[in-house]
Every structure is written in structure tokens, then in C-alpha cells.
Amino acid sequence: xxxxxxxxxxxxxxxxxxxxxxxxxxxxxxxxxxxxxxxxxxxxxxxxxxxxxxxxxxxxxxxxxxxxxxxxxxxxxxxxxxxxxxxxxxxxxxxxxxxxxxxxxxxxxxxxxxxxxxxxxxxxxxxxxxxxxxxxxxxxxxxxxxxxxxxxxxxxxxxxxxxxxxxxxxxxxxxxxxxxxxxxxxxxxxxxxxxxxxxxxxxxxxxxxxxxxxxxxxxxxxxxxxxxxxxxxxxxxxxxxxxxxxxxxxxxxxxxxxxxxxxxxxxxxxxxxxxxxxxxxxxxxxxxxxxxxxxxxxxxxxxxxxxxxxxxxxxxxxxxxxxxxxxxxxxxxxxxxxxxxxxxxxxxxxxxxxxxxxxxxxxxxxxxxxxxxxxxxxxxxxxxxxxxxxxxxxxxxxxxxxxxxxxxxxxxxxxxxxxxxxxxxxxxxxxxxx
Length: 434
What we know:
Strand content: 15-25%
Distance between the termini: 54 Å
Structural class: alpha+beta
Number of strands: 12
């Protein structure tokens, strides 16, 4: 639009310059023609004047217009600033300087549209020609009128073109603005203008990508909020049992007379439930920390890491071959220990086995196993396939949830294979291209 306005401003100036230049060139040609004609008349009059006697001069002056002049050319003989041809030879005041010039001189008198040429002939006589140049001025008026008409037409056409282009260019932008307003109100299905092969099309495609990203982010936040609420609900439910046991035991000890054996058993129960709360709190803090941190990757021996992880257990078999793991060593140890703890809680007559691989490891047991439905929910926070057994073993249902989070941080995955009564196998694998 700014460029269009600039063109509209420069067009009148350019047209005016063209008209002015045409006028100057035409007037220059008219001047040359008049000077050539004047030179011929001057030579003829010099021959005709002869000895310059007064009577002859007067006769030549009176007959000059009839002999050499025409409707567009006036011829005068001037002496001492006065024409010798009578009333009809009345000269304008502006030509006075021409009559005193020592050489041939010209004067364009615009108000009379006449070009005056003065030529000294000698003996105090000056030949003065007045050439009518009104056709040149008429041509300028015609050119000016033509330029004005062209300017009006150009401005009108430019205005129409600007309005059309403005509509073409701004229509998609206006549609995007309306869509943005609707999307801000939550209407993500608002249709967008068709993406063209230009900058507006690029903007439309970028806008569509932004909508998809916002929608995905909103869905992700909604899903996270749902999982967080589920975790809070489950946490409140899981805390109720140990807190009830601890509060009930404390009140019983406060108001009842217990024997030493009963008091010791009650204190043992209260301590066990308190430890469950402590373990639950520790794992929740670890989960929260892992949501805001990235693992510090190092390269280490997988067998050395496994021996350190399994050093706190008894009766766990370590199989497989050594490999170089690139991961956070402490988190990998925590992952292995949680899987082994779960495997030992599953029971079974044979020891738990840990099999090392190049891209991870597997933890196997011959315990009670799980149904496909139970295995599918095994990673849910506070989920327990056998609640009675987990409660007796002290589990809080967060171990596998923490394991899955550690695996995800390393770009890995946990896969459970289990059958009721036949044991469970959990395989951890990660990307070895890091």
C-alpha cells in the first residue's frame, strides 16, 4: 500500500515534467523557425531601404506588414523606440529592452503568447517581428488536460487495484485473525483459510502447526493433571491404612494396659507402618525429582554395576556377559534393585535371576506370576496385584512406577512377561547408540 501511494505521488510530478519539457522543446523549435524567418525578412528589408531616406523608410515601414507579415507574424520598423506603422503598431512596454540591444534579441511574452525578435538594421532603425506562438500554448493546454485525464484514470485504476490487492492479501490474514480469536476461546476446530504458495500460505501452515502443538500440549497437560490427581487420590488412600494403624496403636497404648508382649507387637506394627510411610515418601520425592532432572550419563561396566546393586540381596543369581552401559549409574542401580525386590516378593522356590545383556538386563523369578490384566497395570502408581501380600511385605506400589520413569529418562523401556503360577520376567532395554 505504501508503494502504491508513492507511485501515485510521483506520477503527477513526472507527468508535469514531461508536459513542461514538451512545451520547452516545441517553443525552442518555434523560436528557431521564427529566427530563420526574421533573418530572411531582415535581408529583404535592408535591400529595400536603400539609402535610408525618410520617405522611403516610412513607405517600407507602412508596407512591411503587407509584404512580409501574416496572421501569425507581425512586422514593424522601429526608430527611437517607436514603431513607424501607425496605431496598429502599438507595442507592449516589455519589448523596450529589446529595442536597445546591440545584437539580435528575443523575448517570449506569455500574456500575449507572442515571440518578439529585435534586429538592428542601422541608421537607428530596428526590425521587430512578433510571431504568434499561441498554438504552442494551446498544445501545452491539451497536453496538460491529457495528463490530468490520465492522472485521474491512473489514480482511479490504482485505487481499484489497491483495493483488490488489499482484499486478496488481507483476506487470509483477517481469516487467521478470526481463527486466532476463536482458538483463544478454545475452538481448536476452527477452519483456516486454504494455504497458498506464498508468504500468506507459509503463515497459514505455521499457524496450523501452532494449533496442533497447542492442542497436543493442552492434551498432555490435561493428561498430566489427570495422572497427578489419580496419584494424589491413590496416595491419600495408601496413607490411610498406615496412619490408621499408627494412630490407633498410639491411642491403644495411651488408654489400655497392655502386657509386654502385646506392647512389643503393637510397637513393631507401628514401626513397620511408619517405615512404609517413609519409603512411600522417599519414592515420591524421587519421582518428583526425576520429573525435573535429566540423567547424568557416564560409561561404566554393567557387571560391576550389577554386583554393587545385588550386594544387598541374598540368593540372587547374576548371569550374562559384561558390557559398557552409557547411563546414570546410580539410577540404573536403583532400577535393578527395585525389580529384584518385586521379584523376591513374588515368592517362588528358585532364586531370582538377573541376566545381563548388551542393551540392558532381565530380572526373572518363579513366583506367583500375574494375569495379563495385572501385568498391564503393574506400572500404575500404588497398584498392587496381591494387596494382602504387598502389605505384609511392606510394599507401597511405587517401585515399578519409579522403574518405568528411570527407563524413560534413558530412552529405554520395560517389558513384562508373566503367567499366573509360572513366574515373571521383566526386561529392561535402552538405546545403545548414545
